[in-house]
Amino acid sequence: MHELGHAIAALVFGFTIKGFKGIPTNPRDPYLGYVKTSTSNLTLWKAIGYFFIGIAPVLFGTLFLFAALMILFDRELAVFVNELNILNGTAVPGAGNFASQVLTDCVALVMFIFQPAHWLDWRFYVFLYLAFAVGSSIHLSPPDISAAVGGFYALVALWFGFNLATLWISGMNEHSADWIGRSYVWFYGILAVVIVLNLIAAAVLLVPATLRASSAKH
């Protein structure tokens, strides 16, 4: 999933893939895989593409888990969305209140997934497996971050220009910020689930590792 995300993003932004390795063949290799790309001419679209290619594992991993959540919990998720009023709510004034709402909704999403009513539901465990399996690939290597930084500047410049060009449209920026904020709820909520699962796995593995290290000393 990690390298596949890089490859898909590269194709979307018009890059040519020169090499692809999705599964590591050497366990001592510090990198699990790679995607080698090239381009004949660098346009603004491709410059921005460097950012999305770099963070592609995070984006595609999160989108995959979001799709899995929608497929597995279709009706329940629709009720949850209506209750939170995420899709058809109004913009929240003030950056502090806006961030607070996003955080509150993220916590609500995590609680929705882990609610006791789901503990005896097979769909819950299928999603947990997918979240743990795919979540382990949601990380960025130093080369990923380096590639994303260059594209980030181009993206910020484009966004700044867009805001300047749409200042005359009343409420345009507020609606854009509101839409982005609603997307953040799903993005950060699913990432929070992945973090919780990894913390649980780390805690479970830490106990035998600690006992083994303690017995080795004695």
Biggest sheet, open or closed, and with what strands and sense?
2 strands, antiparallel
The coarse silhouette is: globular
User: Which regions contain 5 or more consecutive residues with pLDDT less than 50?
Assistant: 90-95
**In terms of structural class, how would the helical and strand content be classed?**
mainly alpha
What is the strand tally? 2
Mean pLDDT across the residues is 77
Lateral arrangement of strands in the main beta sheet: 1-2
Keywords: Membrane, Transmembrane, Transmembrane helix
Transmembrane segments: 48-73, 122-140, 152-172, 184-207
Outline the structure in words.
- By secondary structure, this protein is mainly α.
- It has one domain.
- It is 70% helix and 5% strand.
- It is built from eight helices and two strands, in the order αββααααααα.
- It has helices at residues 2-12, 44-54, 56-72, 74-84, 95-113, 122-135, 142-165, 172-217, and strands at 16-21, 34-38.
- Strands 1-2 form a two-stranded antiparallel ribbon.
- Helix 2 (44-54) packs across helix 7 (142-165) and helix 3 (56-72) packs antiparallel against helix 6 (122-135).
- It is globular and about 55 Å long.
- 22% of the residues are buried.
- The chain crosses the membrane at residues 48-73, 122-140, 152-172, 184-207.
- Keywords: Membrane, Transmembrane, Transmembrane helix.
